[in-house]
Amino acid sequence: MVPLMKWHIVNIDQSKIEALSKKYKFSTQFSRILLEKGIDTADKITSITSPGIKSLHQASLLPDIEQGTDRIQRAIKDGEKILIWGDEDTDGITATVFLFELLKNLNARVFYHIPNRKKEGIGLNTPGIQQAANLGCSLIVTVDCASSDHNEIAAAQEMGIDIVVTDHHEVPVESTPHFPLINPKRADSQYPFPDIAGVMVAFKLGWFIAQSMLSLQSKEWQSIIPRWYPLIFLGTYADRVPLKDENFVLAHLGFEWLQKTERCGIRILREMICKGNVCDEEAVRKMISVFSTGKRKEFGNNVGFQLLTENNEDTLRKTISRLLIESEEWHAHANENYKRILVSIPQDTKEAVIFIYNPKLQFDYLGFCASRLKERLSKPVIVASDKEENIIGEARAPGGVNVYAILAKKSSLFLSFGGHKQACGFTIRKEHLDEMKQYLKGTFPGTSIATEQEREMRIIDTLSPEKITQKLKNEILLLTPFAHSNPSPLFLAQGVSLSNGVYSYIIPESGKSKQIEMKNITQTWVGIDGKPVLLDIVYYLNSSGILIIADARPSLFNEQT
Ligand SMILES: [Mn+2]
């Protein structure tokens, strides 16, 4: 059983709260929230109160961006054919669409290829490069992939194709690139905030190209880019990079533009997914699952790319309906696979890294299973299965644990390997399975970090729902969209009566009655007298302003925090 979450009301310096509230006319609660999130400087506060491109880091700080831009610019001027090489996840798809449209607008002769992961794997591959050569392309620009594809890049160069890599995955230490490698995670990168998604790297490159070709001022650029905000947001949100710093700025703008963009595919998605046409985080997750479902089928090219660029409403509606059904089926299968491995794991295992090899698991669901299990155990988890004659594995780790580094020590065993500190994948030969298993049984310093902290709910303050003012609601909305790395602020309400999973109360300002939905618990709490038990609840506001319960306990049993 998963132990109960500890409730902890954060301790914040009262004088700082007062100073912030006075200076910016924030409510006390909002000042507490900001201070808890470490948003305490004028710059950080501006990025929240008026987010705009002025809060973004200079594209010129990305390594090799000038060399990359020069090569692309030359290709555009000389009428060379350029191929954008993407990746099949939402980050990769949105990055491909962005760069494709930007280069088209600059009159480039541009094509794209999003490899099918199941057949082609991730990143560049030689048969695909050969196809690009057959098309007559002399330049490939990658997005969201290829930092470690040195062999394929060498093969491309031999075929007379130049490569510009844009990526955000970890860069192997031994690499000395002979091509422009635009990646904020390079050891020599000066970029101040490396935790950006692939679509953000592509966006920065696009900005740099537009600036140097059209001598655009920031203002002009700002007036052009809202059409791409939702794409940057979706890629950023899907890739689970921390929604802080410039990620937050573009996610906030993109989340806002998601509700009003005229991009046909997103408009139809919105109509079909968002209740009352309001997109909250849950709707966003559903949209993302549509993109990740699209990739697995082959109706033409990449379905996600088509969704974002298509203008025919009927086609879009048909495709989206089909994908929604398939996405539900996918999740049902994924959950079945997860349950299958869940029963096989001793819950009290002492091992630092959980390694599960089960040839019955389907390749498609390995990442899902590893993610879920990592959440449950707060430990690094690797889930592996057979793929043809080899073994393929997906690793996930909680924040602060670098499972990439743990696996990188065994890189000599891998046929392929790549990803991020907290999420990566590999392929090994079957004969190396035992060596891998043995290695992962070892001890890894730093893997059992923060489990105590992860089991703790950091609560902003005690606040009964009746006391939430419209001002505080509006202030909290400035912090949307919420995600794991940008959690919605939690409040504690004590002695609340709760029946049938719904808590009704009256808003003092309007006299209207409101209800709190129960999301995390399903039982009704009833005492021996049959009446609802009074509860202490931890709750938050979602981006539609609805109060959601995150945790609840009978007041009777609750220890004071
Ligand atoms: Mn990515």
Strand-helix topology:
Blueprint: E1 6-9, H1 14-24, H2 28-36, H3 42-49, H4 65-77, E2 81-85, H5 90-105, E3 109-113, H6 117-120, H7 126-134, E4 137-142, H8 150-158, E5 162-166, E6 181-182, H9 198-214, H10 218-224, H11 229-238, H12 245-258, H13 264-273, H14 281-294, H15 303-309, H16 313-342, E7 354-357, H17 366-377, E8 381-387, E9 390-396, H18 403-408, E10 414-419, E11 423-429, H19 433-440, H20 451-454, E12 456-462, H21 470-477, E13 490-497, E14 502-506, E15 513-518, E16 534-541, E17 547-554
Helix pairs in contact: 1-2, 4-9, 5-9, 5-11, 5-15, 9-11, 11-12, 13-16, 14-16, 16-17
Bound molecules: manganese (II) ion (MN).
Manganese (II) ion binds at residues 91, 144, 168, 197-198, 239.
Describe this structure in words.
This protein is of the alpha/beta class. It folds into three domains: 150 residues, OB fold (Dihydrolipoamide Acetyltransferase, E2P) (Beta Barrel); 170 residues, inorganic pyrophosphatase (n-terminal core) (Alpha-Beta Complex); 95 residues, Diaminopimelate Epimerase, Chain A, domain 1 (Roll). It has a seven-stranded mixed sheet with strand order 1-12-13-16-17-15-14. A hairpin with a 2-residue loop joins strand 8 and strand 9. Helix 5 packs antiparallel against helix 11, helix 14 crosses helix 16 and helix 16 packs across helix 17. It is globular, with a radius of gyration of 25 Å. The two termini are 23 Å apart. The relative contact order is 0.10. The model has no long low-confidence stretch (mean pLDDT 89). Bound molecules: manganese (II) ion. The site of manganese (II) ion (MN) has 6 residues, from loops.
